[in-house]
Amino acid sequence: MTHHKSNEAVGGETEAGRGRGMPRRPDQDALDRRTTHDREEAGLPTATPEDPDAVYRAVRDQVDHEVNTGSMPTGTTPRRDRGFPPTRY
């Protein structure tokens, strides 16, 4: 005695008609279009996110600039002169 419905009763054909989740390699362009459409419907800004590599390069260039001008410490101070955390407890 089973209390579950058969696959045919729930969704018809077992091999067709129901999705099996995300494909292994989703179509990125289609996903971007759907995301933009969904954001428009929700009233959110639809600007595309920045390229992560470009953001990383910009931040790294800013840090290098601050280190070169002396506004950011470089960590070259010996451990015993830093004060915190103490080297011995």
Please explain how this structure is put together.
The structure is a single chain. By secondary structure, this protein is mainly alpha-helical. It is built from 4 helices and no strands. It has helices at residues 7-11, 28-42, 52-69, 79-82. The radius of gyration is 28 Å and the shape is elongated. The model has no long low-confidence stretch (mean pLDDT 77).
Number of distinct helices:
4
How many individual β-strands?
A: 0
Distance between the termini: 69 Å
What structural category do the secondary elements indicate?
Answer: mainly alpha
Q: Estimate percent helicity.
A: 40-55%
What fraction of the residues are assigned to beta strands by DSSP? under 5%
Summed over residues and divided by their number, the pLDDT gives a mean of 77
- Gyration radius, in Å: 28 Å
Low-confidence stretches: none
Q: Quick one: biggest sheet?
A: none
Coarse shape: elongated
Order of helices and strands: HHHH
